[in-house]
Design brief:
transcription termination; RNA-binding; N Utilization Substance Protein A, Chain:P, domain 4; 394 residues; OB fold (Dihydrolipoamide Acetyltransferase, E2P); alpha+beta
Length: 394
């Protein structure tokens, strides 16, 4: 042991964030154990380490008694007073018992203890750092992959991206930089284990918080998110400030804000709709871009019947039912979509003024949209979308 140990402890304290006192206490405890084990000594001992002088001594601690039964732990009053005449019964006498070759054992023990403590402290620091970032977004670098996982470097640690949390339209290559959502941080015997996702709805929410200052400062609030990762998502937004356009804030100038998020998610389509406490308005908004004539609400069953123009039925339902399915997830309401003609045949008549007014130019634009986009659905049947049939939003 030399003064170099002091320099090493100072470096550890600075670089690893490990207190010098914590390491010294661990070294002292380990040296006591090593002394007893290597020299077959059972007495109560104390280790005195002088970092400045680079010295180390072992002291046996013995209690002063009238009659000695265990000389390893006790000393007679007469023997104690030969050392110091002021000793009394029940005082503790310290006698130096440092072995000649104890320095070599101490150095080996200190190395093992320091290495172990550094490892434990690093794990603790990493765990404390990342446990506070659960449900947050981070940028990582793809390192490697196997059939089950992709391993993403987050700087101090590698996170695990399971196959079911990977976007189906993405291919990951080593050294790719990707944004991931931290879903879970676990403490294991081998250190912290971090699980991340590219499909979690929280990733979309955090991306909007990054891109939209109004969301970050609380002026605009994201009320709900429905996502089918890699394909299409819907988010509902609201602002208590009547002078703030919540939807426009998220879209950004010429769509720049939402486009940045679309690019990050490799082309995933995003519908931004205005939230409303009125389920009639909210459900109608959620079915965007289709137009809605009326929404009939059944509060008891938390269900709605939505009436749309005949030519809008396929758009309201969406490709393979996606638009209606996402709307049901977004609102939390069951949605039964009917065309206007089918609703009238069933004795359901929309209100005279539709929820969303539109003119002939709108009709022509929507018809043109329908001709250009194949939704692969049968518009002759009513489609019922029940949120109970879907996985709960995470």
């Amino acid at each position: 042991m030399s003064s170099e140990l002091l320099d090493a402890l100072l470096v550890l304290e600075k670089e690893k964030g490990i207190s010098r006192n914590v390491i010294m206490e661990a070294i002292e405890a380990a040296l006591i154990s090593a002394y007893r084990r290597n020299f077959n000594q059972a007495q109560n001992v104390r280790i005195d380490i002088n970092l400045g002088a680079g010295s180390m001594r072992v002291f046996a601690r013995k209690e002063v008694v009238d009659e000695v039964f265990d000389p390893r732990l006790e000393i007679s009053l007469d023997d104690a007073r030969r050392i110091n005449p002021n000793y009394q019964i029940e005082d503790v006498v310290e006698l130096e018992v440092t072995p000649k070759d104890f320095g070599r054992i101490a150095a080996q023990t200190a190395k093992q203890v320091v290495t172990q403590r550094v490892r434990e402290a690093e794990r603790g620091i990493i765990y404390s750092e990342f446990i506070d970032r659960e449900e947050d977004i981070m940028t990582g670098i793809v390192q490697r992959q196997d059939p089950k996982f992709i391993y993403v470097s987050l700087g101090k640690i590698e996170a695990i991206l399971p196959s079911n949390e990977q976007m189906p339209n993405e291919r990951y290559k080593p050294h790719d930089r990707i944004k991931v959502f931290l879903t879970k941080v676990e403490k294991t015997t081998k250190g912290p284990q971090i699980f991340v996702s590219r499909t979690h709805p929280g990733l979309l929410k955090r991306l909007f918080e990054i891109e939209v200052p109004e969301i970050y400062d609380g002026t605009v609030e994201i009320k709900s998110v429905a996502r089918e990762a890699g394909d299409r998502s819907k988010i509902s937004v609201h602002s208590d400030n009547p002078e703030v356009d919540a939807v426009g804030s998220c879209v950004g100038p010429k769509g720049s804000r939402v486009q940045a998020i679309v690019n990050e998610l490799k082309g995933e389509k995003i519908d931004i709709v205005k939230w409303s406490a009125d389920p009639v308005v909210f459900v109608a908004n959620a079915l965007s871009p289709s137009k809605v004539l009326d929404v009939i609400v059944n509060e008891a069953d938390k269900a709605t019947t939505v009436i749309v123009p005949d030519y809008q039925l396929s758009l309201a339902i969406g490709k393979r039912g996606q638009n209606a399915r996402l709307a049901a997830k977004l609102t939390g309401w069951k949605i039964d979509i009917k065309s206007e003609s089918d609703a009238r045949e069933a004795g359901i008549f929309p209100r005279e003024e539709s929820l969303l007014t539109f003119n002939q130019e709108d009709i022509e634009e929507e018809v043109d949209f329908e001709l250009k986009h194949n939704h692969d659905i049968d518009v002759d049947d009513d489609i019922n979308f029940d949120t109970d049939n879907f996985d709960d939003e995470r």
